[in-house]
Design goal:
The protein is α/β, with parallel strands linked by helices and 456 residues long. It is built from 16 helices and 12 strands. It has helices at 16-19, 27-49, 54-57, 65-75, 89-101, 128-132, 155-167, 187-195, 215-223, 228-242, 251-264, 281-295, 324-330, 368-385, 400-421, 429-455; strands spanning 8-10, 81-85, 119-123, 143-148, 177-181, 198-201, 270-275, 297-299, 305-308, 311-314, 335-344, 390-397. It has a 5-stranded mixed sheet, with helices on both faces. It starts with 7 loop residues before the first strand and ends with a helix. The relative contact order is 0.15.
């Protein structure tokens, strides 16, 4: 384990010494917050020891990696396309890994240049145009479908799959579909067994938004030749750091404590995540669900009404310096901004052909990656000058090992923040209510049309 490939966290711009005591944490406030952190890490470790936190087991128990790799090896070079049917946690993790770790134009380059692995298409909404629009794009006979739903009965996921079969006027062969679902129960498991589909399990104690490091994210990643062993190595490295009771050595505990402090004592209801790398834009999308669905709760564990949570917003540097930063610097001071800073990029960005003896001549000896880094520092300094709370997560490079660290870090930050807020970070009653209403209306509409059809 080398220090240079570990993610680090810089919280200095959250402190009163940098942004003033009205919006920043004083030494006394930070010291007080650390006392709560001690209670919470002990509670976390007790629950983990009692086998009560499913996602925390994933980096240490990777026995399912062999099955994932074997199935990926069976399919990797057989198909032109990999089509994912899922929504929420069953799709965001796939997109996160794809955008972070595959070529930025993966679907557009020749098969040889992408090592003959499939193109990826993630259908993550029941918008009819997403499926119908695939008709001129893919050949269904050269496409592997992957249906992902832990409950096994997600309406949007099944609706898209059935529309796919209808639009292309054919049902995929049994060898063309992978089901990723609960290991024992649910309609998808039963249906997949009848159809003879290959099945990979989602651990029963891991919720959808925490499932990227299960077959949900790992199987599509393996098909695309992403090194999932190295990904899990990174998660395990971060796990070891995040179970430390030494506050100064535990980045998740530090981030959670800061997040909780700004939500409560500093009244900052908005969390902005701003990566300075296009490859991490989908990570921000994934974070939005994780943060919002886990922490947005009306009641706490004692049954008291608390309306907990913080609204997550995603931005992209440097693009959104030309839009959102105006609000962040001069609008309401109600946000905490997280910068994701990448040290090293896969591809260089020289500008040697910038014209000499022009106002842009100074670009000739620079690299666009350097400019991106300078843009981050300039924006961060401007926000700090305006007393806007911000922090920086430093990522050596966007590699499987570092992404494993980053994913697990934010899963732990979310969990620990939930414990600090004294809410249940693993349920989602607000989401379930909407699902129940939708299913009822779908059933009623079906019955109405069925009766009308019978009369005709």
């Amino acid at each position: 384990m080398k220090n240079e490939v570990q993610i680090s966290v810089d919280l200095s711009n959250l402190m009163a010494g940098k942004i003033g005591k009205e919006h920043g944490l004083t030494d006394a406030e930070w010291k007080s917050a650390r006392k709560n952190a001690t209670r919470v890490i002990n509670e976390c470790l007790a629950r983990f020891g009692a086998d009560d936190v499913g996602f925390m087991k994933l980096p240490c128990h990777t026995q399912y990696l062999h099955d994932i790799q074997a199935l990926a090896e069976k399919h990797r070079y057989r198909w032109e396309n990999l089509l994912i049917f899922g929504i929420g946690g069953s799709a965001l993790g796939v997109s996160l890994l794809f955008d972070a770790l595959c070529h930025p134009y993966h679907n557009h380059i020749d098969s040889e240049l992408r090592n003959h692995v499939p193109r990826l298409f993630v259908v993550d909404n029941i918008d009819p145009e997403l499926i119908s629009g695939l008709k001129p794009v893919i050949n269904p006979k050269k496409t592997l479908s992957c249906i992902i739903t832990k409950s096994g009965g997600t309406v949007e996921t099944w609706g898209n799959y059935f529309q796919y079969a209808t639009v292309f006027n054919q049902t995929p062969d049994s060898g063309q579909v992978i089901a990723i679902t609960d290991p024992e129960t649910g309609f998808l498991r039963k249906f997949a067994e009848i159809q003879g589909w290959d099945i990979l399990p989602i651990p029963s104690d891991v919720g959808g938004r925490f499932s990227v490091l299960t077959p949900v994210g790992l199987f599509p990643a393996a098909i695309l030749n992403i090194d999932i062993v190295r990904l899990m190595d990174g998660a395990r490295t971060m796990h070891d750091r995040c179970v430390s009771t030494d506050f100064d050595q535990n980045p998740a505990l530090q981030l959670a404590t800061a997040s909780w402090s700004f939500m409560t004592s500093k009244k900052k209801p908005i969390s902005v995540m701003m990566p300075y790398a296009n490859s991490l834009a989908s990570f921000s999308d994934w974070y939005r669900q994780l943060w919002a669905e886990s922490l947005g709760k009306m009641v706490n564990t004692e049954g008291k009404t608390v309306f907990a949570g913080q609204t997550p917003v995603n931005a992209l540097g440097a693009t959104d310096q030309h839009s959102q930063i105006q609000l962040y610097r001069e609008g309401p001071n109600d946000k905490v901004i997280t910068f994701l800073h990448v040290d090293s990029f896969r591809f260089g960005g020289p500008m040697n052909n910038a014209p000499e003896e022009t106002p842009l001549e100074h670009l000739r000896l620079l690299d666009t990656a350097e400019i991106l880094g300078i843009e981050l520092i300039g924006t961060r300094d401007a926000l700090t000058e305006s007393r806007r709370p911000n922090l920086t997560v430093k990522i050596p490079a966007v590699t499987p090992y570092c992404m494993g660290q980053l994913i697990y870090l934010y899963e732990m930050v979310t969990y620990l923040t939930g414990l600090l807020l004294q809410i249940n970070p693993f349920d989602q009653p607000g989401v379930e209510a909407g699902k129940i209403n939708a299913k009822k209306m779908i059933r009623e509409l079906y019955e109405t049309r069925s009766q009308a059809s019978d009369k005709n």
